[in-house]
Write a structure and sequence with these properties.
Distance between the termini: 60 Å
Strand order of the largest sheet: 17-20-21-16-15-22-23
CATH class of the largest domain: Alpha Beta
Strand content: 15-25%
Number of helices: 18
Low-confidence stretches: none
Largest sheet: 7 strands, mixed
CATH topology of the largest domain: Aldehyde Dehydrogenase, Chain A, domain 1
Mean pLDDT: 94
Number of strands: 24
Shape: globular
Number of domains: 2
Structural class: alpha/beta
CATH architecture of the largest domain: 3-Layer(aba) Sandwich
């Protein structure tokens, strides 16, 4: 058995070793941590012609049973030892934490937090689905029809499988696809290049819990292969930057997950107490290393912009890289140093336009991009922008970054644009009503609530039940 694990393609449950393999490396030392088989679009196309057998395997189990098995998978994922590849290797929970940290740059403490989120979703699947389905008796999905609320109900699946083109930035994004299994939908996953660990561990946990192996496709592949997954499954999720997700923006079969441009807004009525909210704002910016699309990337206030920016800079600016196993670690390294170069360069280029100041510069005591024990890191950046017209006012980066922008309250909604998550610190009911009616906000928090807060029984980044099942009218004479 080789000391280096080989992670195979999973062709609807069957392990497959390809001649074409990529290496996943330690972001600090360059040591190879695993070899991962890859396949082309032709193999994916061939396998997906047989996807009905995967769906049939899940159909043999009730939704209630799949919810039970999801909970078992959650415990295995968080605490268990599961197979790692096809050469006899296994992976404990601690080994997963250490390996993912070495290849992604996330410190151990952040990996653990992401694990906890995934575990919660799996072990509370009944609650999650109850919220997403608005209290539907999920047994109706077992037969496709039934009666509830005094009316006949019938549902049909919208696709043959759920295709997933995953990123490498944050393990917790995998929580978005977890309801698919309980909803009797096979998953076909293209993992992120630097992050095969989480989806593979989840698949092995599901299989060990008793979910049919054929319900899972794991296809490390290229751009063409990703396109095949997106086109063929019937329903799909894609993660990426704006240039990637814009290609699918008008395709109802593809749910896009790009930049979140999440924000914190303070209303006129609460702005005088801004000092009370610095901690929740700072956490919204920096938690999870600033890598989530629900991290706040803009703080919008009617006044005191310079003072608020300075207070945030004082709190976040001194944060520096630490050892991966430091329980107080706040920053993530970059598996791809070129991404750090690009972000650092983009911020510096934006600062050349008058009207913006990097307020954290005076508290960092050094450059934004730093090397620490062989890893590349970006330290936090708070930019005070004089208006939304500045190119850095509504930017998002994979690090603790936020702009602070002054804007009159009556102009905020026309200026902020699309926002995945908004925390509005206000008690002004008229303003709250405007916020609730504003269609460009997907997730709205009222009061000093972190943008990172998630209510699992409410849709966050799309309603997976409504995405995978559609209601139809039905009448039966016999």
């Amino acid at each position: 058995m080789s000391n280096i694990p080989h992670i195979p393609v999973m062709r609807l449950g069957r392990a497959y070793e390809s001649l074409d393999q990529l290496e996943v490396k330690n972001h600090r030392s360059g040591e190879v941590m695993a070899k991962v088989s890859t396949v082309n679009a032709g193999i994916i196309r061939k396998d997906l012609r047989k996807i009905d057998t995967a769906r049939a395997a899940l159909k043999q189990l009730t939704v209630a049973k799949l919810i039970e098995l999801s909970a078992k998978a959650g415990e295995l994922f968080l605490n268990g030892t599961v197979p790692l590849g096809d050469q006899g290797h296994t992976q404990s929970a601690q080994q997963y934490i250490e390996t993912l940290s070495l290849t992604s740059g996330l410190p151990h403490v952040m990996v653990k937090r992401n694990m906890t989120k995934i575990h919660y979703a799996l072990t509370h699947m009944k609650t999650v689905l109850n919220g997403l389905s608005r209290g539907l008796d999920l047994a109706i999905l077992d037969s496709g029809m039934g009666e509830q609320f005094g009316t006949k109900l019938a549902f049909f699946p919208t696709g043959k499988a759920l295709g997933l083109v995953m990123p490498s930035n944050s393990p917790a994004v995998n929580s978005l696809w977890l309801p698919a299994i309980a909803l009797k939908t096979p998953v076909v996953i293209k993992p992120g290049r630097e992050e095969p660990w989480t989806p593979y561990r989840l698949i092995q946990s599901f299989i060990a819990a008793g979910v049919p192996a054929e319900a899972f496709g794991f296809y490390p592949t290229d751009h063409e292969g990703a396109g095949e997954i997106l086109r063929t499954c019937g329903r799909a999720l894609i993660f990426g930057d704006k240039s990637t997700t814009d290609q699918y923006a008008n395709n109802p079969a593809v749910q896009v997950h790009g930049p979140g441009w999440s924000k914190i807004i303070i209303g006129n009525d609460c702005i005088e107490e801004w000092r009370n909210y610095i901690d929740v704002i700072a956490g919204s910016i920096s938690d999870n290393g600033g890598r989530s699309c629900i991290n706040a990337s803009a703080i919008v206030v009617p006044k005191y912009g310079a003072e608020i920016a300075d207070a945030l800079a004082l709190k976040l600016g001194p944060i520096a890289p630490t050892a991966p196993d430091d329980e107080a670690a706040r920053l993530s390294g970059f598996a791809n140093p070129k991404m750090a170069d690009f972000i650092d360069g983009s911020i510096e280029e934006g600062l050349k336009t008058p009207g913006a100041t990097d307020v954290t510069a005076k508290y960092r005591g050094g450059p934004r991009k730093v090397e620490f024990e062989g890893g590349i890191y970006l330290r936090p950046t708070i930019v005070h922008c004089e208006s939304f017209d500045h190119p850095l006012a509504n930017k998002e980066f994979l690090c603790p970054y936020a702009s602070v922008v002054e804007c009159p309250q009556d102009q905020m909604l026309e200026k902020i644009g699309y926002s995945l998550a908004v925390s509005a610190i206000t008690k002004d009911e008229a303003f709250i009503e405007q916020l609730m009616a504003f269609p460009e906000i997907e997730r709205l928090n009222i009061g000093p609530v972190s943008t990172m807060a998630i209510s699992w029984d409410q849709p966050h980044e799309g309603n997976m039940f409504e995405f995978l099942w559609q209601r139809r009218s039905i009448e039966r004479a016999w």
